[in-house]
Design brief:
alpha+beta; Alpha-Beta Plaits; 4-stranded antiparallel sheet; 3 helices; elongated
Length: about 110
């Protein structure tokens, strides 16, 4: 079985989330992206405790696309150090995993 991952990143607002999700999908780096929010994030940044409202993107892709997806997120994100966490999908319905594979294939036009 081909490897699949769920990648999570957060953005500061819904508009940036929508823009980033669309750009990822248009590049065929993921089969689908869910935008969840608003969420509340409490975290340390540069020695100070932060309490912020963010939106979370949950990105479904193949493991082979992770490196390109990571580069894309870094190049198109407004955060200096964006969250980019990948979790292996250890199981899923065959039809759903096939959909991820089919929809992340690069077309001749986008290669």
């Amino acid at each position: 079985m081909k490897g699949y991952v769920q990648v999570v990143t957060t953005v500061p607002n819904a508009a940036e989330g929508a823009d980033l999700a669309r750009s990822i999908a248009c590049e065929r780096l993921a089969a689908g992206i869910q935008i969840l929010g608003p969420i509340r994030s409490v975290y340390w940044w540069r020695g100070a405790l932060q309490d912020a409202t963010e939106w979370q993107l949950v990105i479904l892709t193949t493991a082979e696309h992770f490196d390109d997806l990571e580069r894309h997120i870094k190049a198109n994100h407004t955060y200096e150090t964006p969250e980019i966490i990948a979790t292996d999908i250890v199981a899923g319905s065959a039809e759903y995993l096939r959909w991820i594979t089919d929809e992340t294939r690069k077309t001749d036009a986008s290669s």
